[in-house]
Every structure is written in C-alpha cells, then in structure tokens.
Specification:
23% strand; 22 helices; 28% helix; binds FE2/S2 (inorganic) cluster; alpha+beta; five-stranded mixed sheet; seven-stranded mixed sheet
C-alpha cells in the first residue's frame, strides 16, 4: 500500500503506476500536462515536498510518504497572484507549458521570495516553452514575487480591451491554472483509445498485413486497414496524395505512413495490440535526397513523378546586369529540416452523437480543414460531421495537416464509440511535416555604391513523401528570395522534390526563413566588397512606398522597412560589429488564392458572442478579434465573449497560416463590429437580443500567372530589421527587433510573438536540427536543440506603427516575420566578428556548436 498526500488530502493506493498517468487519468488533475512523457518538457511539473519535479519521471512508489501539490492545490491567493502577474505581462500564449511554469515559480518563490534574474531563469530551465521565449514568463515571476512578498492584491484589468491596449488574453486564466481543456485532457464514458501502426521502412512494398493477433487481444474493439476507408483514401490540402492508410500491394513512402489503426479499452492495450500486427514487407531502396529522386530512371513516388512543383520569378535581364555589375557574389547555402516542437502532441477525440453523426474535438489550425478531410474520407455530407476546437497547444504550421483527426474519426465511425487518439512525442516527431531543408545557389550583384542590380537564385527543396503545403512554401520562398529590396533584375527558380523523407510543409516563415538567410548573407559579402557597412547596404536598397518589390508588386504607403532600419541605427552606431538582417513577409495567402475572413456576432443573454473559426494556436487571435470588435462597436470587454471554433456555429475564417488572421479575420471583425455599432447608435444592447451581425472580408490579389507587370501578390507585407550583439565569448547577448507591424492591436501580444519568434529563430540559427537516419528521426525532443530559458538573450522590441490603412485598423500579421531575420542577423554577427562566411545552418564554429557532434557534416 502506498500513501501520500495530494493537494493536502491523504491518498492510499494499492498498486504502483506512473505518477503522471495517475494524476491525469485517475485523479483528473489536468493542470498536469503530458508534453513528452520523456522527462524533457516540464509540462507535467508538480511539487513533491515543495520541490518542482517532472511527474512523468516518477512512480507512485517513489512518492510514497510525500506531499504532492499541483496547480489545482495551491492557495486561492497564490492562484490569483499568478493569474494576475502572468496575464498582466502577456506571458501566456498557447498555455500548454503554463501550469508547469506556475509550479516551478511556486517551488522557487516558496524557498526564495526575492530571487535574482538568474535564479528565476534557472528555476524554469527544465520547463520548455516554444511560444514565449521565456522573457515574459520571467517578468511574470518577478511580478508575482513582489506581489506575494508585499501582500499586494491585484485583479486582472478586465475592461482594458480596445485596439492598442495591453489587454489580458481572454484565455490566460484558464490556461495558467490548468482548468482549460486541451483534447487529451478530455475523458468520456465508454471512450476507447486509438493507436496506429506505422511503416517500419521509408520505402517498402506492403505485401500482407495480418491483424488477427491484434484483433484477438482482450480489450481490443476493432482494427482497421485501408480497405475499411469508406470514402476518399487520398487526402491533402491542394494535392490529394496522402493516404489515410497504405493498402496491401502498395509501397510506403515514409516512416510515418499508417498501415493499420485500432481502438482498445486503454491506451496501454492499444499500443500492445499495435505490436501484434504482422506486416510482410519487401524493403526497397528509399530515395532520401532530391538528387536521388531526380536521377534518371528514379522510381516515381507519385503518378506525376517526383517533381512536386516549380516556381519561377523573373524580371529584367539578369545576365546583362551581372555582366555589367561592379561586384558579384555567388555562394551556396544550406538550411536543415526543423521540427515545430509545439508542446502539445497531436490529439483528437471523435464522438458518435447519433447514427451517422460525428463530433470531432481537435486542436489544429483550422476546424474547417479538418472537417473537409474527414467528410471526404467518410464519404458523407458536410452536416454529418461537426468539428470543434479545444485549446491548441502550439502549431507554428505543424498542425495544418491531418495527423490524428481522420484516424480518430474513422475509428469512432466504425466502432460507434468515442475514440481518442493522442500521439506520443516520438510519433509526433515521426509523423507531421517539418520545415523544408533547402539547398540554394545565390548570385547577387551591385554597382560601386552598393546599389543592388541583380539576383539569381536556384533552389531545391526536399518536400518529402507528400505534397502537404510544399507547393505554396516553395512559392513564398521564391517570391521573397530577393529580400525587401528594390532590385530591377531577378531570375529565381525553385523546385520542390518528393523523396522518401518525412514530409515537409508549413512552418513559421513558410520558405522565407530559408531564402532570407541566404540573401542576407550574400548582402554582407557585397557590403564588404563595396566597403560599406551591413546596415548601409540595406538602407541604400531598402524598399520604400512606391518602390517595386522583386515580384513586381508596388510597395504601399504603409511600407516601413526604412523606419525599422532607422529604429536600430543607434545600436549599430554604438556596436559597429553587431549583426543585422532585414526581412519581409506576406500577410494573407495572396497570389489569387481565395482568402476570406468571416465573423458573426450574436447577441445572447445580454452579451455579444464573437463567432469565428479562426484558430488560436497561441498567437492570440481570440483576444485580437475581441479588441477589434470592442473598438468598432464601442463596447467593453465585459460585454463580449469569444466562441471556440465550431463548424456548426462559427463561420469559416480560413486557416491560421500565412500571418493572415489578424488582418483578414481582424478586418471581418471590424466590419461586423461596425454593423453592430450602427444599431447600437439607436438601441441599447439589451434591445438587440437574438440579433446577428456579420462581417466578411476577402483579400483580392493577382495570381502568379496573371501576366500583370505589377501584380498585387499580397494585400500587405510586414517588414523587419533585427540586430544581434554578441558577448565576449561569442554568445548572443542581446537582440534588438524592430518590426513594422502596421498597428499593434495588443502590444503585449506583439511583443510575445517577437520574443518567441526570436528564440525560435535563434534555435534555427545555432542549435536546432531535425536529423534523420534512413528517413527516420534520429533525434528526440531532448536532443532537438530547443532553446531553454538559460539560453535566451535579452530581447528588445521596437515596434513601428506607420500603416494608416483602414484594413483591420492597419494591423499586419507578425506571426512569422518575427523569426525570419534572426538566423541571418546572428550569422552576420559572427561574420562581423571573424570575417568568415557561415553558409549553412545551424551555424558552425560558434560557442553553441561545440556540444553538437556530427551535425550536418556535409556542409
Ligand atoms: S511530460 Fe513530463 S517532462 Fe514532458
Ligand atoms: S505558451 Fe509555452 S509552450 Fe506555448
């Protein structure tokens, strides 16, 4: 018999088991999150005898006789203080890591009520956060320490909710205190647990799948293979090439391919049953690089061959401009595969509600994308499936594709019972698309003053086994490849190639992260040739309103790249050796693709309920639309509530991708708010009970093939300059990030995006690499090289608000651009220091690379 106290109450248990499983599943303390079950992320942190520890590393036997405290068990006063402090500084984003942060904070402050900055940073070093960059979390802990020591009482300022105000997020409290549900926190009576058998090899003929032993295991409810898919078996965003399951007689294309799915009474039985499925494979030689996939005679991985997409951007006469240029630089650049490492592994719960009807709870970047895939797979009319989003524990592009949603839906559809399917962290790494590895050849030319005259780019992207969003990623890589500069001659050609690697797809920056590193690095070499500073060459070429971008688009009046450069001039003057990089990034899908934001306001019970499907993966769109509606309608926060995305209730506002939601859904929110305001001018809110007010905004842009010389590629672009200062040892000491955001709807949110993006960009620059061996992950969450609190430098945000456009009060998306210039700015800092070009990521010969053995030796 084991005895311990849990949140002050005595507990006795006869059998040993994992502490995290006990707390989450038996005690139903859902503040304890399962982010990895590998002792790496800290999301499961609890206090044991007052010390913060990771519950997944402990068993009941190990806590025998001890006192365990979770966030649910800390005093009401402390809960209030933490909720206030974290909310006030904007420390919460996706929130998945947050209860663990609160536990680490309490463990520290109980022992040390007035910690130093280093002590706070150290206290959260085992808590991974992929969203915030840790700085706001640290500020929140200091604020909480002060309030607790001084006996201060604070309440969240609930009514500061207009555009430009530092509004506390609508979801902050629930996320912090652990009461808000993520999908894996849900349990339903009679619920089954799903599991998936995945391919052992990146490429193999599947001759036979024998499910008999798995089906016979007690507790297994059903086992399904490809022939059980009632509708469409090939799914995908644009190209339908990704099978729900690989059938007997077909080849696998990567190690994440599903061969069979099953549902059982418990997760443990489900995983044991997967082990019992026998597959007769004929292993075949995989194509693990674009070169192999493009070799003459290479097997076609898909019917149309191994070339997924080609993008060409051409203007002027590059040959002549290069021949006439004073300075020409040609270099090759390589960037690696990168893992999103959102803290919440993929999870879906599908629930049959009545015969032929299914409700699926998901955590993705669009409930409508999930819905489309599921109804296609089931072959049923739209109204038979409802998709509702729970909180989304980070996405960064990695939750745009179906991963678990369709499998959970099919299992529930066929079993008639609720089925939850949650990926282990190892499966998550194996299954979802990564950032495209790219090989890039760059030639840039300029005249004697440093004025850029030509850019030629040839790039190859490894798009892996399935198309995912490889085509659009390639397009954005190419349309942004010449940077935010006025260059009259460009010749850019990119190809995305299918291989037997893990698919590549959307990831914050969407291809631009890669080409920006190459373009900006070549600029540093040109500046040296010309004899001017890296800042000067950028300033002399920076796009201005009325200038023409390399894709032909005329820069609008809100363009503020020069303002971002001027905003960091003082830093450059004080630190001439600092690194610098500029970037631009589209807002909205653009290039003629349909792109619509929709918001419906419903007056219910005296409140205005804001309904939109725009997914919040942590970036804060729910709070942004609330502020915009409050501003447009002249209401206060207490009048408003935001509904979770739900295909039966909230209108389709597209995917949270392409930095589009703040502008596109934001404008729809403004229009809906203004419609409501017109009525409020004549009636009190109470008189509008039951009324609906609708706002819609469609981005109108020109397709790549429009043939127009100055086609409008995107409705807006964000611009940025980041500066990096190294310390004496060559570590990143400070990053100054100047961003043209148009208008900061919520400065807390914008700063949070910048700080988190810079931390992610720093990982991309220095420590992160998703290594693969024979097409399979050769890394774990713990060896990815993710930035922790103790690595994060000081980050200073300088926000430029120049845009006077009416659209969404001038706001432009910041979700992606925040990480794009970071890697080239860091590369520039090392270049400034030692004059060596580092042409691949993660950067070599830095203090951060000393501990990395064997990484990207090919570079
Ligand atoms: S779930 Fe325990 S450390 Fe990640
Ligand atoms: S807020 Fe920390 S992982 Fe998202």
């Amino acid at each position: 018999m084991y005895q311990f106290t849990l949140n002050g109450k005595d507990v006795e248990l006869a059998a040993d088991k994992g502490l995290m499983a006990y707390l989450r599943e038996d005690a139903r303390l859902i503040s304890v999150k399962n982010g990895c079950a590998e002792g790496v992320c800290g999301s499961c942190s609890v206090l044991v005898n007052g010390k913060a520890v990771r519950a997944c590393t402990l068993t009941i036997a190990k806590v025998n006789g001890k006192a365990i405290t979770t966030v649910e068990g800390i005093s009401e006063r402390e809960r209030q203080v933490y909720a206030w402090a974290f909310g006030q500084v904007g420390a919460v984003q996706c929130g998945f890591c947050m209860p663990g942060m609160v536990i680490s904070a309490k463990g520290l402050l109980d022992a040390n009520p007035a910690p130093t900055e280093a002590e706070v940073r150290s206290a959260i070093r085992y808590n991974l956060c992929r969203c915030t960059g840790y700085l706001k979390v640290e500020r929140a802990i200091h604020l909480a320490a002060q309030a607790l020591s001084n006996g201060e009482t604070h309440v969240v300022e609930a009514d500061a909710a207009h555009v430009g105000e530092r509004t506390v997020r609508v979801d902050a409290q629930e996320k912090l205190l652990g009461s808000g549900e993520f999908v894996d926190d849900m349990q339903l009576p009679g619920m089954l647990h799903g599991a998936v058998l995945r391919s052992k090899y990146p490429r193999a003929l599947v001759k036979k799948i024998d499910i008999a032993a798995a089906r016979a295991l007690p507790g297994v409810e059903l086992v399904l293979t490809a022939h059980d898919v009632p509708g469409q078996r090939l799914l995908g965003h644009i190209v339908h090439d990704w099978p729900v399951m690989i059938a007997e007689g077909e080849e696998t294309r990567y190690v994440g391919d599903a061969l069979a799915i099953l549902a059982a009474a418990s997760e443990e039985i489900a995983r044991r049953a997967v082990e019992l499925i026998r597959v007769d494979y004929e292993e075949r030689t995989p194509m693990l690089s674009p070169q192999e996939a493009l070799a003459e005679g290479a097997t076609h991985l898909h019917p149309k061959g191994n070339l997924l997409a080609t993008t060409v951007v051409k203007r002027g006469d590059v040959d002549r401009a290069v021949a006439e240029a004073k300075h020409v630089i040609t270099q090759h650049y390589s960037t690696p595969r990168q893992e999103h490492a959102f803290l919440e592994p993929e999870s879906a719960l599908a629930v049959p509600t009545q015969p032929g009807q299914l409700t699926v709870y998901t955590a993705s970047q669009s409930v409508y994308d999930d819905h489309r895939g599921i109804v296609e797979m089931l072959g049923v009319p739209d109204e038979h499936v409802r998709v509702i989003s729970k909180f989304v524990g980070g996405g960064f592009g990695g939750k745009e594709d179906l991963s678990v949603q369709h499998h959970a839906a099919l299992l529930a559809w066929r079993s008639g019972r609720p089925v939850k399917l949650t990926l282990s962290r190892a499966e998550s790494l194996r299954v979802h698309p990564k950032r495209h590895p790219m090989e890039m050849d760059y030639t840039t030319a300029c005249d004697e003053s440093g004025k850029l005259t030509a850019v030629r780019v040839r790039l190859v992207a490894d798009t892996g086994a399935y198309a995912s969003l490889g085509g659009p990623v390639l397009q954005r890589a190419c349309t942004h490849a010449a940077g935010p500069y006025q260059i009259d001659n460009v010749d850019i050609e990119g190809r995305a190639i299918y291989t037997n690697n893990i698919p590549s797809g959307a990831f914050r920056g969407f291809g631009v992260t890669q080409t920006c590193f190459a373009m900006e690095s070549n600029l540093n070499l040109l500046a040296r040739e010309v004899g001017i500073s890296p800042w000067e060459i950028r300033f002399r070429n920076a796009i201005e309103p009325g200038g023409v971008l390399s894709n032909g688009q005329i820069a609008d009046a809100g363009t503020a790249l020069k303002e971002t450069l001027l905003a960091v001039k003082d830093v450059i003057d004080a630190h001439p050796d600092a690194g610098i990089a500029c970037a631009f990034k589209n807002t909205g899908k653009g290039v003629g693709v349909k792109d619509v934001g929709r918001v419906r306001l419903k007056v219910e019970d005296g409140k205005v309920v804001i309904c939109t499907s725009a997914a919040c993966m942590g970036q804060g769109i729910a709070t942004v639309v609330l502020q915009i509606v409050a501003q447009a309608a002249g209401l206060s926060r207490s009048d408003l509530r935001v509904h979770e995305p739900d295909t039966f209730i909230t209108p389709d506002s597209g995917t949270s991708t392409a930095s589009r939601q703040t502008t596109v859904t934001g404008e729809a929110a403004r229009r809906a708010g203004e419609a409501l305001k017109r009525e409020l001018n004549h009636h009190p809110l109470a008189d509008l009970e039951g009324r609906d007010f609708y706002g819609e905004y469609e981005c109108v842009t020109d397709p790549m093939t429009s043939g127009k010389p100055n086609r409008v590629s995107h409705v807006a672009y964000g611009f940025a300059t980041q500066v990096v200062i190294l310390d004496a040892e060559g570590r990143v000491q400070k990053v100054i990030a100047a961003h043209d955001v148009g208008r900061a709807i919520n400065p807390n949110g914008v700063e949070g995006q910048i700080e988190g993006g810079v931390a992610m960009g720093m990982g991309f620059a220095l420590t992160e690499e998703f290594a693969v061996r024979n097409g399979a992950p050769a890394v774990t969450l713990g060896t990815l090289g993710l930035i922790r609190s103790t690595h994060t430098p000081e980050i200073e945000c300088r926000i430029i608000e120049k845009n006077q456009a009416e659209l969404a009060y001038g706001a432009k998306g910041v979700g992606e651009i925040v990480m794009i210039p970071t890697a080239p700015a860091i590369a520039c800092a090392y270049f400034q220091r030692d004059g060596k070009l580092r042409n691949c990521l993660p950067l070599r010969e830095t203090p951060y690379s000393r501990n990395r053995k064997g990484a990207l030796e090919s570079c």
